[in-house]
Amino acid sequence: MEEIKALVGRHPDRLTMETITTGNKDYSAEILVVTYGRGRREIDNSSKFRILLSFGQHGRELITSELALRLLSILSEEQSLPSMDPICLNNTLEKLVIKVVPMENLNGRKLVEAGDLCERRNGRGVDLNRNWSVDWGKKEKDYDPYEENPGTAPLSEPETQIMRKLSKSFEPHIWVNVHSGMEALFMPYDHRNTTPDGLVSHIMRSMLEELNHLHCQDRCLVGSGGGSVGYLAHGTATDYMYDIVKVPLAFTFEIYGDGAASSKDCFRMFNPIDMTTFNRVLNDWSASFLTLFEMGRHQLDGIPLKASTSNLDKLVSIDQYLDGYLMARSSRYGKKMEVIELGMQEIRTYFRLFLLSSVLLLFMFCSRISKSKCSKQIVSAIPL
Ligand SMILES: [Zn+2]
């Protein structure tokens, strides 16, 4: 983070930064956002192609924040990629605004640096990639409460709230959530084993297939997060960005993994341990990002976005409702706001219990009546 801040200081013409802080229940989080853009960016952000990248959402995936640093130093031309044509690159970069969150989970990262190398959650034990409101709190059979704790409510964590606010005000065309643990290029959905319908979904897939070929030597898994990774994930950032923020090109990149590492050796599972691999990963994925920016800008050219006015769009989903609710609450109570105390998951559980007990009572009631009055009739009426 110090290196990134120094880099921004050396390139005030291209890089700016801001720190966003928020908190609740005696827990606070801060997120540094670095913005890359040329020219008078405050004025013409809205006319440019906008990209939002998040790194370090999981504490133990240290390599992802290294990629943020490498990418920023390439963007500021302190480092270069031999594989990229500088003129072509220059042309693309002129028309972009890129917001980079180099370390989304600073508190979790501190725990990792203090020696807890397997920690992926934030500073109070919540998995920031399960805390979002799309399909929040649903638990699979293999649910691991330690790894995947979704929090007390959707969007309960300060880190999530900051990222959500940032995405809603910036309205990116491209979102990438950068992780490690395997090599993959994922698109929505994480909570279903299918990809969305429509043209933009088709574009996403073809872009990922090309990136896989150009920069991953066809090693990367490509497809929906839920369909390719072998498990469904509920309440993820990328599903939220796609479904709620309506980012047309929303991705999760998994940039490195050592499948042969012992499951106790988290550092090795998620991060390269020699300089050659370290630099290879950073160079390959920096190139992949620059290709993505270039492709994204061309692919979305001429496609009407957010223009759909079908009746379906007017129906408010529970997520959007909750979203609006949380938004209203946060503006009313400012920083002291506490999001819904009782999580949706608990409400659902209580409701199911209530239904179940009603049915049981009804059944007991009926069976008493049938025993006393019409048991023969009921028995004979049931076909075998
Ligand atoms: Zn991760």
UniProtKB/TrEMBL annotation:
Cofactor(s) required for function per UniProt: Zn(2+)
GO cellular component labels: extracellular space
The organism's place on the tree of life at top rank: Eukaryota
Membrane-spanning parts: 349-366
The UniProt record lists the keyword Transport: no
This protein's UniProt keywords: Membrane, Transmembrane, Transmembrane helix
Any single biological process term in GO: proteolysis
Keyword set includes Membrane: yes
Gene3D superfamilies: Zn peptidases
Domain Peptidase M14: residue ranges: 1-299
An example Gene Ontology molecular-function term: metallocarboxypeptidase activity
InterPro entries listed in its UniProt record: At5g42320_M14_CPD, Peptidase_M14
Family matches, as SMART domains: Zn_pept (SM00631)
Catalytic residues, chain numbering: E254 (proton donor/acceptor)
Family of the protein in this entry: Belongs to the peptidase M14 family.
Name this polypeptide is given: Peptidase M14 domain-containing protein
